[in-house]
């Protein structure tokens, strides 16, 4: 395939690439960056493309792999290595460490709504957000694992209805 044909075919895929990038990133600016990175890589490695094969699939594979690599890189940048003898890896969110008045109010309000739930739903949900696994919750509360899963699911659903203003 000639370079001009390749470039024209690549440009023709831009709309589809943008849609796919948006589905991966859920952010317009990051999607545009991903499309640009994909264009650069596709043009740089056009000699790797085998003529008369599916260009769209090849380009989308590049985009997906670029997205995954960028995600992994971002996670690594947020990982702090502990220098103690145990050498733990800590994933800490990039946070200023200060709570704004809005976030403090929101947290208190959300906690109050959770506290107002019936014990049958509140207790498994609180255990789940504290990090307990479904199986552990089921054992501690002497419930079937399916019951625990459904109670947590319905609690989430109920919280989304009650706290509708917090959805973005």
Structure description:
The protein is mainly alpha-helical. The protein has a two-stranded antiparallel ribbon. Helix content is 68%, strand content 4%. It has 2 domains: 75 residues, Rna Polymerase Sigma Factor, Chain: A, CATH 1.10.1740.10; 66 residues, Winged helix-like DNA-binding domain superfamily/Winged helix DNA-binding domain (Arc Repressor Mutant, subunit A). The model has no long low-confidence stretch (mean pLDDT 83). Helix 2 crosses helix 3, helix 3 packs across helix 4 and helix 7 crosses helix 8.
Q: How many domains is the backbone divided into?
A: 2
Q: CATH topology of the largest domain, anyone?
A: Rna Polymerase Sigma Factor, Chain: A
Q: Kindly report the average pLDDT value.
A: 83
- The CATH superfamily of the largest domain appears as RNA polymerase sigma factor, region 2, helix turn helix motif
Shape: elongated
Question: What is the first-to-last residue Cα distance?
Answer: 46 Å
What would a concise description of this structure say?
About 70% of the residues lie in helices and about 5% in strands. It is mainly α.
List keywords for this structure.
single chain, 168 residues, mainly alpha, Rna Polymerase Sigma Factor, Chain: A, Arc Repressor Mutant, subunit A, 2 domains, two-stranded antiparallel sheet, 2 strands
Describe the secondary-structure layout:
Layout: H1 3-12, H2 14-25, H3 28-44, H4 55-77, E1 79-81, E2 89-91, H5 101-115, H6 119-129, H7 134-141, H8 145-162
Antiparallel strand pairs: 1-2
């Amino acid at each position: 395939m000639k370079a001009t044909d390749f470039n024209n075919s690549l440009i023709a895929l831009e709309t589809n690439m943008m849609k796919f990038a948006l589905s991966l990133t859920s952010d317009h600016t990051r999607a545009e960056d991903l499309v640009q990175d994909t264009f650069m890589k596709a043009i740089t490695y056009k000699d790797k493309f085998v003529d008369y094969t599916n260009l769209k699939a090849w380009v989308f594979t590049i985009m997906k792999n670029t997205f995954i690599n960028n995600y992994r890189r971002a996670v690594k940048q947020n990982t702090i290595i502990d220098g103690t003898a145990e050498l733990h890896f800590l994933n800490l969110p990039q946070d200023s460490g200060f709570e704004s008045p809005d976030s403090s109010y929101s947290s208190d309000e959300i906690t109050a709504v959770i506290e107002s739930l019936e014990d049958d739903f509140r207790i498994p949900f609180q255990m789940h957000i504290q990090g307990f696994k479904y199986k552990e919750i089921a054992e501690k509360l002497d419930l079937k694992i399916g019951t625990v899963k459904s109670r947590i699911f319905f609690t989430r659903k109920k919280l989304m209805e009650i706290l509708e203003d917090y959805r973005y």
